Fold this protein.
Amino acid sequence: MSGNAVTAAATARMPDAAAADFIHSLFKPAHILVAISGGSDSTGLLVALAERLKAFPTSNVALSAATIDHGLRAESADEARDVAALCASLGVPHVARRWEGEKPKNGIMAAARGARYELLTDIADKISANVVVTAHTLDDQRETLAMRAARLNEGEGIAGTGIADAMLFDRRVWIVRPFLACRRADIRAYLTERGMSWLDDPSNEDVRYERVRTRKRLAQNAAPPSVLDGGSTRTALSMEATAWLDRYVTVHAGVLCAVSRDALAADEAVLSYALPYLTAVFGGEPYGPGRERMRRILDFMGEGKPGRRTAGGVLFDLRRDGLYLMRENRDIRPLELASGADGIWDGRFRIVNRGPTAIRIEAAGAKGAAEFPESLPKGAVQRARAVLPLVIAGDGENAASVAIVPYLAPFDRFLTRFDLTFADRLSACFGRAPYARPPL
Ligand SMILES: Nc1ncnc2c1ncn2[C@@H]1O[C@H](COP(=O)(O)OP(=O)(O)OP(=O)(O)O)[C@@H](O)[C@H]1O
C-alpha cells in the first residue's frame, strides 16, 4: 500500500461518526437543510443525520431536505417524488423545486450547479434554515483535485485546495460538506446495512463528462493524490496574506489600491495568494486572472522597473514609491436602474436606487470627484477617479437617494472557510463591517 493510500485510509471517516461530529459542531438551535438528489451520498447523509437526531431528540436541531429538479432528464420529476417519499418515511419535511431558467447549450453542468445553489439558498431563506449541507465525498474530492491538477499542467486556472468543507454562498448561507472525508463505498455499505436503496444517475457513467473520465482513471490508479491537508495550508496562507495586507496595503475610495514598495519583496506564495484576490476585487471579476497572466505580473513586479501592465481588467501601475492597482478604464458597461431597483455595476459596486425616477450609472471619466490624499501620484488618482461610478438621474440631475456600496465580487460565491481571515480584513479595507459570519 502506498503512503498516500495509507493516509487516506487512516483519515477516512465513517458516515455515522461524520454526521454526529457535524451536528455537534453546530450552534444550537439550528435548522439543517439537506440537499438531496437521491443518489447514494446524499441519501446516506440524510439518513445518518436523521438517525443521529432521532437518537438525541433533545438536541435542538431541526432537519429538512430539498431536491432540485433540473428538468434535464425525463425521469427527474419522478425521482424528486421518490425522494419526497423517502423523506416522508423518515419524518423529514421535504421541498422540491424545479429549475425553470433558460438552459445554456454549453457548460450545462456548471449552469445547473449555479441554479441549484441559488434555489437551495432561496429554500433555506424561506424555511429559515441556518445551514445547507451537501454530500460531497472523499471520492469527489480526489476527482476534483485530479481535474484541477490536470488543468494546472495545461497552464490554466489557479492552484486550489479542492472542494472546501464549508463555503459562504452569496453572503446568505453556509454550505457545509460533512461527508468530505467519507468514502462512497462506506456510505453505500451504511445504507445497505439498513436495507435502504438509492437512485443511480445515468450521467455518472457518461464519459462525455470530464469528472466521469477522471473517476474511471483514478479507479485504475492505486495511489490517488492525497489531499487531506489542503485546508490548513490555505488557512496559513490566508493569515500570512492578512499580515501583508495590514502592513502594506491601503484602499482609497474603493477604487485605488496602494501597495508600498517593500510589500513586493514578500514571499512569492503570499503574493500569489493575495494579488489574484486584489485583482479580482478591483477588476470586478469573480476570479483572479489565470496562472499565466499572474505569472507575468509577478515577473514584472519582480523586475521592479516602473511601468504599467494590465491583467483581469486591472491596471498595475508600478512606480518608485509603490504599486497602484485600479480598474482599467475599458469595457465598463453602464447600468440602468428603475426606481426602487438595485443592481451590481461593473462587478464592483452595489447600487440601490431609492429615488422616484430611473437612473443610469456609468464610469465617471473626467467627472470623477472623490477626495484622495495629496501624497498619492496625480496620474494614478486621475485614473482611479475615472472609474468611479457616476449616477445620472432620468432628468439629467445627479440622483440624491442612491446608495452605493463596494461589492467584492470574488467573495460573493466561493469564499471558503480557509480564506476568511484574509477576506475579513480585505472587506474592512473597503470600510465595511468584517466579512466573517459567526462560526457554525
Ligand atoms: N438535484 C439535486 N438536488 C439537491 N441536491 C443536489 C442535487 N444534485 C446534487 N445535489 C447535492 O450536491 C452534492 C454533490 O452532487 P454532485 O457531485 O452531483 O454535484 P456537482 O455537480 O459536482 O456540483 P457541486 O460539486 O458544486 O455541488 C450531492 O451530494 C447533493 O448533496
